[in-house]
Amino acid sequence: MTCRIDRLTTEDDGVILRISGRCVGAALDVLRDALAEGHAVRTIDLKDLRQVDRDAVKLLAISKARGITLKNCPGFVQEWIACERAEPDSHLPSDGRDQ
Amino acid sequence: MSTTEMIGSSPKLAAVLEDVKAVAATDCAVLIQGETGTGKELIARAIHEASARRQHRCVAINCAALPAPLMESELFGYERGAFTGAVSPTMGRFQAADRGTLFLDEIGELPLELQPKLLRAIQEQAFERLGSSNTIRVDVRLVAATNQHLGDLVEARRFRMDLYYRLSVFPITLPPLRERTGDIPLLVRHFVRIYAARHRKSVERVPDDAMAALVAYHWPGNVRQLQNFIERSMILTKGTELHAPVAELVSQQSAIPGSRTLADADRAHIISVLRETNWTVGGRAGAAARLGVLRTTLIAKMKKLGISREMADGFTVRGLDAA
What we know:
- The complex is a heterodimer.
- By secondary structure, chain A is an alpha/beta fold.
- In chain A, 35% of the residues lie in helices and 31% in strands.
- Chain A has a four-stranded mixed β-sheet with strand order 1-2-3-4.
- In chain A, helix 2 crosses helix 3.
- The longest helix of chain A is centred in the middle third of the chain and has 12 residues, at 54-65.
- Chain A is globular, with a radius of gyration of 13 Å.
- By secondary structure, chain B is of the alpha/beta class.
- The longest helix of chain B has 15 residues, at 184-198.
- The two termini of chain B are 44 Å apart.
- In chain B, helix 8 (184-198) packs across helix 10 (222-236) and helix 11 (246-255) crosses helix 15.
- In chain B, strand 4 (126-128) and strand 5 form a beta hairpin.
- Mean pLDDT of chain B is 88; it is low at 314-323.
- The chains are: A alpha/beta, B alpha/beta.
- Chain A binds chain B through residues 1-7, 17-18, 20-21, 27, 30, 33-34, 47-48, 50, and chain B through 66-70, 73-74, 83-86, 90.
């Protein structure tokens, strides 16, 4: 196993998804499903994230634009999200703010 | 794998191998300490192979390789639904090592929050998978390794004292290669044989001056660095004599700030005087006279430090003069 995604519930019934390890390939499908489950995901905690691919960055960028907080977002991911947005053919919506 | 794969005949290595034999017969925890590249995993596997557990698995995990949550699930396993994406029950490394040996490499990097759970698993030989309350009992022999000083980590409160004492029942300290230089020629010939076969070359000898330089170098990356250097040398070799680019070693040693040893200083001064005398060693105007030593003493010193004119040319270009 190279990625683990924990769903943590906050006191006000919000949901934090905590990603550990490599968010690529099949792990990205798990994250996509977790985001689509209809729970009130408010935060994605990336403290223990080690690796992402372009699809993961796009998904994180979309999540951020939808108001989900990217907590402990590593600098390289922040920069990559900014680069993806700056692409001329980017269809990514504009964003909220990271913590 | 066995202790016979540890190449060398130095007293320090012999003492380590004696320790391996002694502790292998027991079930006690072993803490292997040593610099990077000294062969800690080799020793861990040698302990397993020399023990009564050798019919079972030796399972290794690197504590620095994974973040804490992943390390927890890797060590102890998990049940279906323990976290998002956990679709089936999965055995952890602890259980996989049942009746065998669990090797925890880079134990100093184990996240603090996991240390109590590991301590309990070691002491009670029992744990629960993530998402389960069923206790799993195992019979695991623990071997841990580190290139850090765990005592310092304990003082800095980055490592639990109780876990430290539990792990270090039988500590084994591997000597760095620079403390067993007598083993270097054996290791060089061993790696030459291996890489000659791998790269389909017939290298028959290692030049004396190259060997002297290899013995004189301080090898901060230890046996692993020597092994990689010999493989690179083999790739560069065209004939039957090993072409070892030893000048690069000297320049590396000189280029690292603060890394100059007494041997580095001796080497630099001797080369400087030899240059002034146009590499004349003996005679009234020779380097030996200028340095105030006998000609034979200087020659012996040059051999020990791996000094030759060819090596010193590389020394000029890449190292000393640029520093």
